Amino acid sequence: MKKIIVGFAKPLGCHNCRMKKFCLPLGLDAGDLDKLEELIERKKPLQPREGVFFSGDPFTSIYAVRSGSIKSFCIDSDGREQVTGFYFPGEIFGWDGLADEQYQNTAIALETTSICEIPYEQLDELGNSIPSIQKHMMKLISREINTEQRLIALLAGNSAQQKLASLLLSISDRLVKQKLSSTRLWLPMSRGEISNYLGLTVETVSRVLGHFQRKKYLAVNKKEIEILDKQGLRDLLLSPEEVE
Amino acid sequence: MKKIIVGFAKPLGCHNCRMKKFCLPLGLDAGDLDKLEELIERKKPLQPREGVFFSGDPFTSIYAVRSGSIKSFCIDSDGREQVTGFYFPGEIFGWDGLADEQYQNTAIALETTSICEIPYEQLDELGNSIPSIQKHMMKLISREINTEQRLIALLAGNSAQQKLASLLLSISDRLVKQKLSSTRLWLPMSRGEISNYLGLTVETVSRVLGHFQRKKYLAVNKKEIEILDKQGLRDLLLSPEEVE
DNA sequence: AAATCCAACTGATGTAAATCAACTCAAGGT
DNA sequence: ACCTTGAGTTGATTTACATCAGTTGGATTT
Questions:
Q1: Average pLDDT in the A81-88 region?
Q2: Pick from B80, B142, B156: which is nearest to A82 by CB?
């Protein structure tokens, strides 16, 4: 029996949270932050593969990642799983459930992951008395739209190499927000999850990573990636490359 | 000189609007609807290709389609245009500008199109006094997320045939909300716009439409489409077809 | 009515990525 | 220590779609 004890005796509040500036409380004064903090439930850490909510569950809350990572996916008409997003510390997920009052996606932890649960009903009430919270919520949802539109553009008009380069650069950018290096990254998701997200096959992902490695863009060791030539990857996203 | 005079002397208010149940006022009583109506500006009809807003413009308003149709698109890193959505009567567009206070997309009319402009600042203020408006706004944005996730799934994991079948069925469903037939439809966008939206080429769209016609799923006459076998199209979206 | 233009269609060919098929390797279980 | 399992990689082959190259036909111009 394996037992992972994670320090939980002294849960950090929003005031001290390392991720706070990327999360909900933007632009709140200390008093309002207190009120917000009251309703946020810091859940005990999720085990790898543990679910947060499932497609069809009634919508109750949105969630913020404190540490670890989350993938969200839906099952489409023909029963295949489609990954719709990866979420890292400081990012919010769960908005997809609001429109129809039930989650469209399933969200699971990719690794040992801590999240904050923010009950939507109460958040909404708080928003009625603190307009800046309401406003911030709207912006957060809108930002999710922007993120998804970028993914749509990536899926619709790019090669396998461009898709992977783009994902790696995006993950790199998002990890900088934590203490972490922007060049040495750990991919919490499998090759299969990457390929599904990007509309490719595992074989193609594997080959492109191999290609990037030969080109000295990356050093790859299983899920550990070191970005050796970030500009090289960025250049791939520009006009049709004539690099041999 | 061509001059199209469209009746505009007596602009319909929300109360009489044929599209109202799909639009903003959901769940409002008559009094609240009046307040909302005051701030909505019914603009004079747009000519085909006329722009509503452009990428980079400061975010001021969201828009509802009254009649006609809108396409929204962005220009990605390498300068290519990427169509991100088509909007039909009763649908709202412009939310993408909220997060960064400027529109990420450009929105143009595909045909002669009437829209309502809803200034966001004022809508937000109204939302502060009428919580149901606030709530409804959030749901509208969230619905946009759902729509885009469906597009992501379509782009990531489907064949050209499936993509087109899915788009045609979606347009058909949305036109039913107007007076219009669900089987005889007029596509306001060009083949190029369709192909761009679906991550295909014009040639492929043309060939798939030809194929659908030979299969008696459709009768195609330029932009006029008659759906002859809706179930046949739906079946394409299910498991891998072994139909010859 | 001839000339021009452009969106849409069609055919021939090329190619990026999917598919099919081993093979490797690390992790767990007995 | 051996067997199993599954993720990841690599190679050979196929294929769906892109690309290239006309052709068609309706609308607009002259």
A1: 97
A2: B156
Q: What CA–CA distance (Å, rounded) separates B68 from B87?
A: 9
Produce one character per residue of A97-108: b if its CB has 16 or more CB atoms within 10 Å, e if not: bbbeebbbbbbb
Do residue B149 and residue A84 have CB atoms under 8 angstroms apart?
A: yes
pLDDT of A46-67, one tens digit each?
Answer: 999 999 999 999 999 999 999 9
Instruction: Name the β-bridge partners of B53.
Output: B107
Q: A108 forms bridges with which residues in the sheet?
A: A51, A71
Cβ neighbours, 10 Å, residue B120: 20
- Report the SS3 class of residue A76: coil
Polymer length in residues for chain B: 244
The DSSP bridge partners found for residue A109 are: A70
Q: What's the 3-state SS for chain B?
A: CCCCCCCCCCCCCHHHCCCHHHCCCCCCCHHHHHHHHHHCEECCCECCCCEEECCCCECCEEEEEEECCEEEEEECCCCCEEEEEEECCCCEECHHHCCCCECCCEEEECCCEEEEEEEHHHHHHHHHHCHHHHHHHHHHHHHHHHHHHHHHHHHHHCCHHHHHHHHHHHHHHHHHCCCCCCCEEECCCCHHHHHHHHCCCHHHHHHHHHHHHHCCCEEEECCEEEECCHHHHHHHCCCCCCCC
Number of residues in chain A:
244
Mean pLDDT calculated for residue range A104-111: 97
Q: C-alpha angle A229/A232/A233, rounded to 5°?
A: 95
For the segment A155-180, what is each residue's pLDDT rounded down to a tens digit?
A: 999 999 999 999 999 999 999 888 78
> What percent of chain B shows pLDDT beyond 70?
91
**Encoded amino acid at A22, one letter:** F
pLDDT at A134: 86
Q: Whole-number mean pLDDT of chain B?
A: 89
Angle at B181 between CA B178 and CA B183, to 5 degrees: 135
Residue type, B68: G
Strand D atom within 7 Å of A205 CB = yes
Distance CA B83, CA A150 (A): 11
Which residues of chain A does B152 touch, with a Cβ-Cβ cutoff of 8 Å? 82, 84, 148, 151-152, 155
Which residue type sits at B96?
A: D
pTM above 0.90, yes or no: yes
DSSP labels for A126-149?
HHHH-HHHHHHHHHHHHHHHHHHH
Eight-state DSSP code of residue A55: T
Task: Report the chain A residue with the minimal C-alpha distance to residue B97.
Answer: A142
Task: Pick the closest to residue A72 from B155, B151, B149, B157 (CA basis).
Answer: B149
pLDDT on residue A9: 41
Distance from CA of B114 to the nearest CA of A (A): 25
Say whether A205 sits in a helix, a strand or coil: helix
